[in-house]
Amino acid sequence: MPVIEAKGLSKIFGRNPKQTTKLLDEGLSKEEILKKTGNTVGVNRATFEVEEGEIFVIMGLSGSGKSTLVRLINRLIEPTEGSIMIDGEDLASMDKESLRKVRREKLSMVFQRFALFPHRTVLENAEFGLEIQNVAKEEREKKAKESLEMVGLGEYFHQKPGQLSGGMQQRVGLARALANDPEVLLMDEAFSALDPLIRKDMQDELIDLQSSMKKTIVFITHDLDEALRIGDRIALMKDGSIVQVGTPEDILVNPANDYVEKFVEDVDRSKVLVAQNIMKRPEYVNIDKHGPRVALERMREEGLSSILVIDSKRNLKGYVIAEDASEARKKEVRDLNNILRTDIERVSKDTPLNDIFNVIHDSPVPVAVVENEKLAGIIVRGAVLAALAGDGEVNLEDA
Amino acid sequence: MLNDILDFVPEIPVAEWVETVTDTITDWFAFLFDPVKEHFGSFMEWSSEMLMQVPAVIIILIVAVLAFFLSGKKIGLAAFSIVGLWFIYNQGYWEHLMSTFTLVLIASLLSVIIGVPFGILMSKSKTAEAIITPILDFMQTMPAFVYLIPAVAFFGIGMVPGVFASLIFATPPTVRFTNLGIRQVSKELVEASDAFGSTGSQKLFKVELPMAKATIMAGINQTVMLSLSMVVIASMIGAPGLGREVLSSLQRAQVGTGFVAGVGIVILAIVIDRFTQTVNSKKD
Questions:
Q1: Strand partners for A157
Q2: What is the pTM of this model?
Q3: Which residues of A22-42 are buried (b: 16+ CB within 10 A; e: fewer)?
Q4: What's the CATH code of the domain at B219?
Q5: What region holds the ABC transmembrane type-1 domain (chain B) (predicted)?
Q6: Chain B interface disruption, residue of A117, A127, A192, most B CBs within 10 A
Q7: Residue B82 lies in a domain
Q8: Cβ separation of A109 and B186 shorter than 8 Å?
Q9: Which of A95, A109, B221, B240 is packed most tightly, with the most Cβ within 10 A?
């Protein structure tokens, strides 16, 4: 069962929001509704599920409704319509007391501008969630200290947040959220206010923390690189609607529409795409069955100047080139072993495009993609360039 | 005549109505006003008597020491307090000073006790804000002399009606600043406190009030200053203290005594102002 399950979750800001939802049914756009009613569509019928232990990234430009959406998840903003299930309980229809209980025990939030209490020390900040639950002083101090140590702030217990750098302040924010030991961590542009280097560190640390603590994380960002870096799955938002949900690769490789495509256009694809995405079905001959004649025939059929050679177990042996093959045929040599060349570059399925680029540059023949010594595909130079340019044919069959 | 249009309704007897209402209130609430007049009045007199029993030297020393530590071990305020208070003593106004101080202290305390909850109420409810704001405007702009009249009707003459008048005049800043202070608490902090599941009172006491403290203290400082400024006006209905000296000098056209008593009020004002401000700016 998913930890979070949103169904038709909507938020309309303004008067008579319920009536405006009818216009959503009629398929009017955010702009048309604003013109007609003066109401702003914050979130439009968002439906998604977040599985336990995944990092679910909600991404969109400013004004796309992503911050509203995350606040609908813990009902800091009242939804106009729809349901939001946490562990099977509908938050949207819950009374205040139960809502408070869910917020205390299951959901914690990390804020863009940290939202630390300036009048409290770092330790007291980290204790806040437990203090609210009336946990005894000693116990909450112990837990708060543990979570501060986890984020590397063991020596700053008694400082005020104002004395710390931005990165450290956000660590306090993270520690405060973790001290409750929640199931779900809601992170609203948590790293956006940090400078790029610190941001990267924090992203790495979050991934580390995640792999050791197995929290479910909903992460809001406007930065695609960040989304691709940390997200297990990404939901893309535009004008309050979720446009596409998928793995980072899905989104890059098969953008659902022009908007998503435009969004991913600027991404450095070389960091994201791997060999598997751009490899092609290989042409090959079997060294145990075929001789130079067959090899030559295949090359002619496919218009190639070289062809890969495997054995009956599909293990990659090397390649032969057309010149050698035709010479061998003239000399009536039957065995491909005599003309086999083995100086072929091999990469694995998950080698990033970046690395393939360096390899393929020096290689006279296509690069072979192998998995456990077995041939999986080939990559030709053109495919790499096309993929980098962003318009290559890319396959996800095996993904 | 063109003005006839305006005469389509005869004069509305608002003044009579107010008088009737005031009389009725005086009658009906006599059971409440009379004990207040009696007990609260005697309590205030007792307080200022007690203060007068304490030797002036000791009070001056206490004030100076407090000033020294509150202002972060700086000598300025302490020195000013010693010289200023000694000057008032020297001019023979010490007892008046004690009466005035009692009046200001009690009036301000009551203002704060009443004002802060109303400020909180205003910050939490738009309706409350819409209702209270015009009342506060009314309280602050109505000339102070006007509510001396019902004050006398309710509580007779002396310190009690002085406190009453001062309450009306001096409470609004505390209410307004409390409201402002809480509304100014950053939205993210309020969200953070909600997101962790605070109840309303946890949010108020753990986040909003501590965050609004500086603003509320600025309001309280204003309240104290305003109630001090009421001292002279309240002397018209028999409140004792430095104000009464100013008033009687006015009636007898004695420029000198008037000036000295006035300077006494100024000194007290400066000392109180600096005290409340340093409490506020003190880093915690």
A1: none
A2: 0.76
A3: ebbeeebebeebeeebebbbb
A4: 1.10.3720.10
A5: 97-276
A6: A117
A7: no
A8: no
A9: A109
Interhelix angle A30-37/A17-25, nearest 10 degrees: 140
Distance between alpha carbon A60 and the CA centroid of its chain, in Å?
13
Residue B141 domain-assigned (yes or no): yes
CA-based R_g, chain A, Å: 28
Alpha carbon B93 to its chain centroid, in Å, reads: 22
Of A250, A355, A374, nearest to A310 by C-alpha is A374
The strand pair at A107-110 and A184-188 is best described as: parallel
Residue of A104, A108, A130, A132 for testing the chain B interface, max B β-carbons within 10 Å: A132
Rounded to whole angstroms, the Cα distance separating A188 from A69 reads 10
Cα–Cα distance measured from residue A302 to residue B92, given in angstroms and rounded to the nearest whole number: 118
Task: Give whole-number Cα distances, A390 to A147, A261, B91, in Å.
Answer: 43, 10, 91
Query: Is residue B7 in some structural domain?
Result: no
* Cα–Cα nearest to B233, from B136, B168, B155: B168
Q: Name every chain A residue with its beta carbon within 8 A of the beta carbon of B197.
A: 100-104, 129, 132-133
| CATH number assigned to the domain covering A275-389 | 3.10.580.10
- B94-124 and B242-252 helices, crossing angle to 10°: 110
Quote the pLDDT of residue A103.
94
Q: What is the pLDDT of residues B119-132, one digit of tens each?
A: 999 999 999 999 99
What are the structure tokens assigned to A318, written together?
A: 């090397």
Domain A4-106+182-267 fold:
Rossmann fold (3.40.50)
Domain spans of chain A? 4-106+182-267, 275-389
Angstrom distance (rounded) from CA A347 to CA A357: 11
- What is the rounded CA–CA span in Å between residue A368 and residue A209? 36
- Write out the two tokens for A353: 């495009």
Kindly report, residue by residue over A342-358, the tens digit of the pLDDT: 888 888 888 888 788 77
Q: Does residue B5 sit within a domain?
A: no
Q: For residues B184 and B123, give the distance between their C-alpha atoms in angstroms, rounded to a whole number.
A: 10
- Domain total of chain B: 1
**B195·A109 Cβ contact <8 A:** yes
